[in-house]
Amino acid sequence: MTTHIAKESGLWHPDTIERALAYVERNEVRRAYARGAFWEERVRMAEWWAGFLDDIRAA
Fold first, then answer.
1. CA 6 to chain centre
2. CA–CA dist 29, 3 (Å, integer)
3. Quick check: 43 and 19 in contact, CB under 8 A?
4. Beta carbons of 2 and 27 less than 8 angstroms apart
5. Taking the model in full, what pTM does it have?
6. What CA–CA distances, in Å, run from 26 to 18, 23, 30?
7. N or C: which end of the chain has fewer CB within 10 A?
């Protein structure tokens, strides 16, 4: 996902975008708890991104 496009959309909390990136928490305990952070919004954002790519492909 292109961070710039997600941020420009204004639809998503910046922390949600960051969690969706390849960032990995080094502390295993923190990583386990952070995995679920913003989960529902991350799912909606992934669906939005898939639709965005479908629209580009169809154009």
1. 8
2. 26
3. no
4. no
5. 0.73
6. 15, 9, 8
7. C
